[in-house]
Amino acid sequence: MKNIGVVGAGTMGIGVSHLFAAGGFPVVLVDVDEATLERAARLIERNVRLYRMLDPASNAQPAEVLSRIELTTDLKRLADADFVVENVTEDWAVKGPLYVEMDRICPEHCVFGVNTSAIPITKVAGHAGRADRVIGTHFMNPAPIKPLVEVIRGYHTSDATIAGTRDVISRAGKDSVVVNDSPGFVTNRVAMMTVNEAICLLDEGVSTAADIDRLFVECFGHKMGPLATADLIGLDTVLYSLEVLQDHFRDQKFRPSQLLCKLVYAGHHGVKTGRGFFTYNI
């Protein structure tokens, strides 16, 4: 697989495009909004510089990385793609029809990588018309500097698709772990419950946001506390993920915290809006 398509220029689409372009792959980044694509280009340029400071071994140059990324609102530009990573919102009304359209445009051999937080891969594959070539590719944020990708085998995903996906991820400089399909997979099924419980503790006045996170960082050695992690993921994405888990498992243990709902309804989505449990300069 050589030609990479990325659909959705939000936080994850930006990171995945950056990752593959820095790895030498030509990338077509598609979004429905021109302004979102312009913002993506600015952030990728900034992030290439920033991540070089965090990884002195990296020799990526902003202009070189951007030169490998075609920005477009035309989904038909995926007609030559070998591997597409889809990163659109976790709204099934948006995500489901998109796969029908991509299946019509992309070549028969093209593999669809689903970068979702919680939606089952087998459900997505049911809309794609190429179920054996649909696979979960759960990149973490920020994708260019996370060493590992959670790869999810759907019910119909073939061994060839698994091998090809792990190979292209490896050539982009990352390792991968393969898990079987289940809502939230391994990482988010655990992480979303942890984040939600931390929000409940804050809502009940048991502790402050800063001290909840400090306990996880200094007692457990985590790099970030659960509330800062939620801000980085995006509180809207956390809420969508919990709703998907609650819907699929019919289990109240996944019921979203009322404080989380209130913040999302108020437009406080974390880092990307400048305010969540903490405040950020954007």
UniProtKB/TrEMBL annotation:
Top-level taxonomic group: Bacteria
Kindly list the residues the record flags as site (Important for catalytic activity).
Answer: H138
Q: Where is the 3-hydroxyacyl-CoA dehydrogenase NAD binding domain?
A: 3-181
According to UniProt, this protein's pathway is: Lipid metabolism; butanoate metabolism
Family, per entry: Belongs to the 3-hydroxyacyl-CoA dehydrogenase family.
One GO BP annotation of this record: fatty acid metabolic process
Domain 3-hydroxyacyl-CoA dehydrogenase C-terminal: residue ranges: 184-280
TM regions (residue ranges): none
What organism does the UniProt record list as the source? Micromonospora parathelypteridis
Give me the residues that bind NAD(+), please: G8, A9, G10, T11, M12, G13, D31, E90, K95, S117, N141, K272
Q: What class of enzyme is it?
A: oxidoreductase
MF terms (GO), sorted A to Z: 3-hydroxybutyryl-CoA dehydrogenase activity; NAD+ binding
What is the protein named? 3-hydroxybutyryl-CoA dehydrogenase
Pfam families associated with the record: 3HCDH, 3HCDH_N
Q: Coiled-coil ranges per the record? A: none
The EC designation for this entry is: 1.1.1.157
- Cross-referenced SUPFAM superfamilies, in alphabetical order? 6-phosphogluconate dehydrogenase C-terminal domain-like, NAD(P)-binding Rossmann-fold domains
> Which keywords does this chain's UniProt record carry?
NAD, Oxidoreductase
